[in-house]
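To: structure subgroup
Subject: Chain for Friday's discussion

All,

I'm putting the inputs and outputs inline so they're searchable in the archive.
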Amino acid sequence: MSRAGAFYITNSGYNRIEVFDTQKQRFVDPIPVGQLPHQMAMGLDGTTLYVTNIGGESIAMVDLDLQQVIGGIQFPPIPRAGKRRSQRRENDSNGS
């Protein structure tokens, strides 16, 4: 993802967005965003970056002028392990 003067790169290993300054030709301070940042989308205003955090099941809203998270959306956890069908049938027949 890019914006005039900078490139933004998700770094899932460190839970942050790396910022590369194209004028200075070097990385500058990263932006912490949440667990396992994965994808990004630039807002229509050109100053807001939306970052999906697959480890935290959330979206972080980053103000690129402030270089920090200004808000976000937290989703309910997704059940990762459920009962097997045979267990559900037993529970249904027992009334539980």
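Points worth raising on Friday:
The chain has one helix and eight strands.
The radius of gyration is 19 Å.

D.
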